[in-house]
Amino acid sequence: MNIEEYFSDDRLYNTPSRTLCGANNINMEVFKKFCNYVEIEVFSYCNRKCEFCANSYIDRHSRNIFMPAQTYSKIIDELTMIDFCGDVYYCRYSEPLADKIILTRLREAREKLPNAKLTIITNGDYLTSSYIDELADVGLDYLLISKYPLPNKKSSFEEQMQQLIEFAGKLNLEYENCGLRNNAATLRLLHPKLHTTIVSREELETFATNRAGTVNSSQTQKLRDIPCTHPFTSVYIDYEGKVAPCCPIRPDIPEHRDWIMGDVNDEPLWDIFTNTKYSLLRYMVKDYGTQKIYPCSVCDDNCRNIIFATQKRMQKIAVKDEFLKYLKKSDFPLVLYGAAKLGKSVKYLLDKHNIKIDFVATDKKYWQAGQKFFDFEVQAIEDVLANSENTKVNIVVAFYCCGIEERANELNNLPNVQKTMLFEDFDFERANKASKELNYLEVDLAEHCNLYCAYCTHNCPVAEPKFPSIEQFEQDFIKLSKLTGGYIALLRLLGGEPLLNPEIVRFMKIARANIPHGIICVVTNGILLAQMKDEFWVTCKENNITVRLSPYPIKLNIEKIKKIASEYGVELCFGDSGYRKGNDKFWMQKLDESGKFDFAEAHKNCFWPHCTFLKDGKIYLCATAPCSAHLNERFGLNFQVSEDDYIALDEAENLQKILEFIKKPSPFCRYCATEEKQIVEWRVSEKKKEEWIVDEEKSL
User: Fold this and answer.
1) Whole-angstrom Cα distance, residue 271 to residue 27?
2) In which band, very low, low, confident or very high, does the pLDDT at 403 lie, cut at 50, 70 and 90?
């Protein structure tokens, strides 16, 4: 749900009268619809006294007070009553792994809440290899390990990463180096059952807040440019059962006690979530320009670092005409500062608008002699600037690095730099809604597959083997090229399993010939990847096409695949499709043949909005409508696709027509049971109707 919908829904501001018939059901309905995050503190103890936390002066160390078992069970039972499928976090102001009672609590939650995502945030001090196995066995989904800095010690990014690697070694776990994420050195630990991430918290100015004025640890000025979302979506429950509307507010701080929303021992969660205090607080924080109440008036949580807020503003400029207009008019040489994935995105955009790049550069510590980026010889940024002393240059910053915002500001102040602009990456799948470009498109190169995943959103297990017509494909892409100017930010060639298509190389060449500007990737399950002929890999290299491997719990020779891709110089990436949870769980959403849903409301609640799909000369909002034909044929159903469910390329006078179409819901959305989405274990399909269709009794 879009956060603007929370701010505008009257039910979050008006408390239902307890004397109204069915008021309790109203409260349950509001809680189920809007609350997607519950944080629980199962005991009070924390072993640390971090400077950025009120535990530095509040006693959470001398004894451990446990949440009563009946209180915890009441919370879990109430979440069970609404089939809660959001996030349940175990943290608050305790160290959740300090006592192994957490295993008992997790086991109860997993048994009663099969569709919730259970997460622990820990400092890692109590963590061992066997403890991780125990957590996985009782049903924990995510483990986030925050490695905090030593007092008065500042480590470089390389030192931070080495510390994380050493910690992974102590746990006897292999790891995937994720580099810099959200300004923090990050590793993913490769546990077979548990999604585990370890993050360095060295950069306090990035993540630390003043905890509603209770500590003074935030080292950079912050700006509130969006309303605080916590009271609209979340409940935070401490070890006594007291409910706070956000993380910073805590009952053991006297100044905060007026804003404790209630006690789960005395009333249900949904009555607390809809009570007068919660409603009043939402009303007060919705107008975020100047907060009207303490402690919100002094809190910088859910605010943006001013440097990052500036970066956001720069991003908005970067994707709008002003960014491009400036570069078109400027006579100064242009330096693209970044030679990786984000740099590639920026280059495609600049190429599409005929903006010439003069130099491609990276930091000296990342620079390698002979490094190529398209036809450019990559240089160290220091060398580029040294050789440009007699003329000013524009710099477009397009890569991630620890402190890159400060680095951009430094560059901007150099005498031979005219202007420095940050270009931040964005979610292509969801960017079409507000863009003037076509930012995302996917096309099936095969309707069938060789993996047969249950609940497949393209319905591949019940699809007859079929490939698209290459003649139709070429006609479509010639039209797309004219409409888009040859630029689609992200084009995904998928299926089914695209590698099953014996003519995949021809399809890839046609796609790149007509869409020269933009990222193109082949999305595959990887089963056939190591067997692909030289022609496939050479075509990927020559046409700058990425191979994206979707993670599934199947055996693949990943090292062999990596080696082949490396030998041919092909970019290989591993990633989710936006709806997965690790490699063995993902979100599933069924269809209801009755078509009883309001299609506009269903579109609002869609879990996969803006996954624009092309098939046989027609553009759809997503693959659901065109792929419903497989269900009709297999099970004798009657899903109807009307002319209002797509826009034909022949009928699109210009790109704006397509962009206007994909912003709006289509009639087929009425079949989507968006309220029925749930997390499911990956398994091989049994090709049964109930994998895709809502049970008829539920449909009534």
Assistant:
1) 6
2) low
Cα–Cα distances in angstroms (integers) from residue 217 to residues 52, 210, 406, in the given order:
5, 6, 19
H, E, C per residue of 349-406: HHHHCCCCCCEEEECCCCCCCCCEECCEECEEHHHHHHCCCCCCEEEEECCCCCCHHH
**Per-residue pLDDT at 307:** 37
Task: Decide: 499 and 463 in contact? Cβ < 8 Å.
Answer: no
Res 181: pLDDT: 65
pTM of the model: 0.51
Q: According to the model, what pLDDT value does residue 5 have?
A: 55
Contact 455, 348 (CB under 8 A): no
Distance CA 237, CA 595 (A): 39
The string of DSSP letters for 632-673 reads HHHH-------GGGEEEGGG-SSHHHHHHHHHS--GGGGGB-
**Which residues, in sequence order, are CB contacts of 173 under 8 Å at separation 6+?**
129, 132, 189, 190, 191, 196
The percentage of the chain sitting over the pLDDT mark of 90, rounded to a whole number, equals 42
* Pick from 296, 294, 312: nearest CA to 304: 312
Of 73-82, 167-176, 586-595, 602-611, where does the model show the most confidence? Answer: 73-82
Distance in angstroms (rounded) separating the CA atoms of residues 513 and 481 = 9
- Identify each DSSP E strand in 194-343 by its residue range: 195-200, 222-223, 234-237, 242-244, 262-263, 304-305, 334-337
Alpha-carbon distance of 310 to 314, in angstroms, equals: 6
Closest CA to 520 of 557, 550, 493, 556: 493
477 to 261, 283, 513, 619, 663: CA distances (angstroms): 57, 50, 9, 12, 22
Please name which of 89, 100, 93 lies closest in space to residue 47, comparing C-alpha atoms.
93
Residue 219: both structure tokens together: 């080292």
How far apart, in whole angstroms, are the C-alpha atoms of residue 20 and residue 16?
Answer: 7
Question: Which alpha helices (DSSP H) does 198-275 contain, by range?
Answer: 204-207, 230-233, 269-273
